[in-house]
């Protein structure tokens, strides 16, 4: 039997993740049946579960993949840019990481076993946010009157609030100025640092 190349295995894994992302976003975790996963990926259940032990492992891999992608955006442009991307990529059936993020948030609230497994994987975004804030502080851009860990928690809380807002089906078209305010709130203000008025 011919040996399958690593490139082929990687491409197949990517095909499964991309198709599954659409399926989980459209139907949620419970509604993403094996049949629907087969349709979304164009592959058989045997091919899907050759790469992933079970549906939860597939979902966790997808959520982790999206967390890594978000961490890359954070490293280059910050967590507020992730939020802006979240708003600009909305659609009736989101096929990007919004759907995964919504499902992760729901399962964290309702599934203790998932919460324990996700805790092992969820550090990428926090670490990327903290590293970027430290770089900004060293460059004199970040406000220095609030601890970086507090600012990290603040931005993550805003992200979770935005995800909840969108999960309720509320409009996001007018939230650009809100994100401008969030971004401005973590920046250092020279006048304030020099003793100016608030």
Largest sheet: none
Number of DSSP-assigned strands: 0
Helix-strand sequence: HHHHHHHHHHH
> In whole angstroms, how far apart are the ends?
73 Å
Give the number of domains: 2
Strand content: under 5%
The second-level CATH architecture of the largest domain is Orthogonal Bundle
Written account of the structure:
This protein is mostly helical and 198 residues long. It folds into two domains: 1-52, Arc Repressor Mutant, subunit A, CATH 1.10.10.60; 55-186, Tetracycline Repressor, domain 2 (Orthogonal Bundle). Helices cover 74% and strands 0% of the residues. It has eleven helices and no strands. It has helices at residues 6-31, 34-41, 45-51, 55-77, 79-88, 97-110, 112-119, 123-138, 148-167, 176-185, 190-193. Helix 6 (97-110) crosses helix 9. The chain is elongated, with a radius of gyration of 19 Å. Residues 90-95 and 192-198 have low confidence and may be disordered.
């Amino acid at each position: 039997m011919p040996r399958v190349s690593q490139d082929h295995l990687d491409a197949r894994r990517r095909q499964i993740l991309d198709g599954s992302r659409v399926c989980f976003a459209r139907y949620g975790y419970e509604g993403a049946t094996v049949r629907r996963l087969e349709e979304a990926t164009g592959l058989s259940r045997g091919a899907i579960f050759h790469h992933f032990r079970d549906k939860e492992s597939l979902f966790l891999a997808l959520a982790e993949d999206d967390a890594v992608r978000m961490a890359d955006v954070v490293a280059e442009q910050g967590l507020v840019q992730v939020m802006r991307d979240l708003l600009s990529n909305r659609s009736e059936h989101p096929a990007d990481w919004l759907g995964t993020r919504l499902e992760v948030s729901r399962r964290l609230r309702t599934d203790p076993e998932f919460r324990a497994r996700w805790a092992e994987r969820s550090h990428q975004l926090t670490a990327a946010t903290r590293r970027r804030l430290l770089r900004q502080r060293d460059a004199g851009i970040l406000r220095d009157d609030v601890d970086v860990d507090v600012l990290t928690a603040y931005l993550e809380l805003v992200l979770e609030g935005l995800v909840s807002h969108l999960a309720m089906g509320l409009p996001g078209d007018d939230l650009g100025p809100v994100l401008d305010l969030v971004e401005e709130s973590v920046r250092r203000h020279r006048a304030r640092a020099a003793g100016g008025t608030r």
